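Entry:
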Amino acid sequence: MALKLMYITNRPEIARIIEAAGVDRIFVDMEYIGKSIRQSGMDTVQSHHTIEDIKRIKASVTKAQVMVRVNPIHEASESYPSSKEEIDAAIAAGADILMLPYFKTAAEVQKCVDYVGGRVKNLPLVETPEAAEHIDEIIAVDGIDEIYVGLNDLSLGYGKKFMFELLADGTVDALADKFKQKGLPFGFGGIAAVGQGMLPGERVIAEHYRLGSTCAILSRSFCNTDKVTDLEEVRQIFETGLADIRAFEEKCAAGKIDYAQNCAEVRKIVPQISERIKNR
């Protein structure tokens, strides 16, 4: 089955274009608590979208799901509502899937599940070493529909320089085995376009298929809509890029890709990339 592809945006005009091109999930990202501190100095996306953005995106699409990353579990402050209030507002605004980031315990995931109350899908984001190391307790929580491994923050937590080190060193394999034993759909990381990216998109897609992943985020390197401002150019990038991804997936589904060889190449290439990053 083809990967469910996701892309982060709060712009309705972009949402309409990428939905038409075949993106399955429009990703509204409200997370900001603690993110700027832990990702300081990294070239990562820090969106801080809003409830109003959810409403606008929901109104702009007809078939794509709206996935919303809320903040980590927190209490109300003078400037921001509690997790329960935030989750209630996100669901009321039109979220189809709720992603809980940066948790460390099963208790936090349980709180999110309780707050959601079965109204939409729960998709926890495993991105702390504590969560990865207690994954059995976390996936035992009743009410998780899918799960995702966030390689950016998880690699930071483990002191890595390149997020795909966790794919090359077996960390993602070990987590994937746990998810599959539980029968839990999962995804990980981000993918660039075919033929592009420090670790080319097709290398990562083949790893998704080898591991049995069901979804992936299209990375900013696939198309950075902060820099590509011409909507027609955005349309062409997504139409061409998604066609290339789907064509490569067809090769994977038809058994034309040697997963073992690709995995060996990934495990050879990634340390070389990491070394170059360290020596910058």
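The first strand starts at residue 4 and ends at 8.
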